[in-house]
Amino acid sequence: MNEVYRSWASEGAHVHYVSNSPWQVYPALSEFITNKQFPQGSVHLRAVSTQELIRGKPGKHKLEMIPKILQDFPHRKFILVGDSGEIDPEVYQQIYNQYPDQIIKIFIHDVTSQRARDADKLAQERPDSYYRSLRKFLSRESSLQRRGSTSQLAMDAMAETEVPEEQQQISNPEIPLLTKLEQFEERMKRVSSGMREGVFTVFTLASQLMLDPVVAEEFLMSKTSTDLSI
Predict the structure, then answer these.
(1) Beta partners for 42?
(2) Neighbour-count burial of 185, counting CB atoms closer than 10 A to its CB (0-12 exposed, 13-18 middle, 19+ buried)
(3) CB-based contact 102:71 (threshold 8 Å)
(4) How far apart are CA 182 and CA 76, in angstroms?
(5) How many CA atoms lie within 13 A of 74 on its CB side?
(6) Looking at the DSSP assignment, which residues form a beta bridge with residue 108?
(7) Please, which residues have CB within 8 angstroms of residue 33's CB and are 6 or more apart in sequence?
(8) Could you say which of 20, 89, 128, 213 would form a disulfide bridge with 161 (CB–CB 3.0 to 4.6 Å)?
(9) Across the strands, what pairs with 103?
(10) Contact by Cβ (8 Å): 112, 185
(11) What is the mean pLDDT of residues 188-207?
(12) Where are the beta strands (DSSP E) in the chain?
């Protein structure tokens, strides 16, 4: 990623490092930026108490800090870079909705889908898999066309394993059961819904950022500076 940021900086981009990390880690972060040859830029960390470190609201710092940066530079365009591990997609969606004209691109590093595939594979291989149990129930229920034995079939199927919390809302067998990978894909679709075409990109390789046509066109055509917020 350092090569991507250096390339953008060489094109005139200004870099703002926005992190949910507390300000106490600044010395280590500054050393990391220098040693890994990331371009220099402003650093925005959280000023927090011990209690806030434990009970702080996820994403609050970025939701407060990034809009302030956009307001400080109203004539600049911004690229937002985050990852799917926490709530960066949802945070950036809110910021985009507030400042659609200033946000030219949102990049989300996919750190979720491979873990989701692994979890789904493991779940399918387990004899007491919730997914296997519920899919089995839905199949049997459908074949019986909701006859009187449906309730008993449901009880038998659900008794095989505990229902995961994220699936507890599924009480209607007409609602398809989503795997973890499908949940992630639906989440990305939901977040990007309503955005301009080409604004939202989920990536796995840094080279995808270098080759992105929206960013390339902005650097070529725009006479205003393009800021990179991380």
Answers:
(1) 16
(2) middle
(3) no
(4) 36
(5) 2
(6) 82, 202
(7) 17, 40, 43
(8) 128
(9) 78
(10) no
(11) 93
(12) 14-22, 42-46, 77-83, 103-109, 200-203, 226-229
Identity of the residue numbered 33: I
Q: What is the DSSP string of 6-56?
A: HHHHHTT-EEEEEEEEEGGGHHHHHHHHHHTTPPP-EEEEE---HHHHHHP
Helix, strand or coil, per DSSP, at residue 142 = helix
Residue corresponding to tokens 């106490």? 24
Mean predicted confidence (pLDDT) in 189-202: 94
Q: How many residues belong to the chain?
A: 230
Residue 98 in tokens: 């507030």
Please tell me the chain's helix, strand, coil percentages from 3-state DSSP, rounded to the nearest 5: 50, 15, 35
Chain-centre distance for alpha carbon 94: 12
pTM: 0.73
Average the pLDDT over each of 4-13, 68-77, 169-178, 202-211 and give the range with the smallest value: 169-178
> Per residue in 134-166, pLDDT tens?
555 555 555 555 455 555 544 454 444 444 444
Laid out side by side, the sheet with 14-22 consists of 42-46, 14-22, 226-229, 77-83, 103-109, 200-203
Residues 6 or more apart from 42 whose CB is under 8 A from it? Answer: 15, 16, 17, 69
- Residue reference for tokens 């981009």: 13
